[in-house]
Write a structure and sequence with these properties.
By secondary structure, the protein is α+β, with helices and mostly antiparallel strands. The protein has three helices and eight strands. The strands form three sheets. It has a four-stranded mixed sheet. Strands 1-2 form a two-stranded antiparallel sheet. Helix 3 links the parallel strand 4 and strand 5.
């Protein structure tokens, strides 16, 4: 019998302000390389959940294709090839955010993966600036810290409102 586990892929929601998880099932017996290859190609293809298909999408520029995924210690290199124009640079940066969150961002992520290196036509990609206002520039080795503003699970203060004897209260 085959056994599967849930793994989240992350796609941008409306206005590209937050990532939205899309759970897929991957076989437990897959090697780390097979798992990473499957996750990256699934991410490049777009959401699978019918509820998300019209509301979210992948930011991979259509003229860039996934050529390969390799593991080097705690880093994953994702090789993209094709014609990437300067206008696509911001879009490639958003796709990098999707890759980083998918490969490092959840409890079910592949073990020991801490960073992602995106190569475009054999050259390491680095966003032109910080993707998050006031945040760090990811550089060539990209980690979740540079993409915290897209966190699909933002913490929010635990507060609530109620009415007691006609008086509104907040806690």
């Amino acid at each position: 019998p085959l056994f599967y586990k849930a793994q989240d892929l992350y796609f941008f929601g409306p206005q590209n302000s937050r990532l939205v998880p899309d759970s897929v099932f991957v076989p437990l017996g897959a090697t780390v390389s097979q798992l990473l290859d499957t996750l990256v190609k699934s991410l490049a293809d777009g959401p699978t959940d019918p509820w998300l298909v019209g509301a979210t999408g992948t930011e991979r520029p259509s003229d860039l294709k996934v050529q390969g995924v390799t593991v080097n210690g705690s880093a994953v290199a994702v090789d993209l090839a094709g014609h990437a124009s300067k206008a696509d640079r911001k879009q490639i940066g958003r796709f990098a955010a999707q890759l980083v969150w998918t490969l490092t961002g959840s409890r079910t992520s592949p073990p020991a993966i801490q960073s992602v290196i995106v190569n475009v036509n054999g050259q390491p990609f680095s966003p032109a600036g910080s993707p998050c206002a006031g945040g760090p520039n990811p550089g060539e080795i990209q980690t979740q810290a540079a993409y915290e503003c897209f966190d699909p699970y933002p913490s929010s203060p635990a507060s609530f409102y109620y009415v007691d004897h006609g008086q509104p209260w907040s806690r």
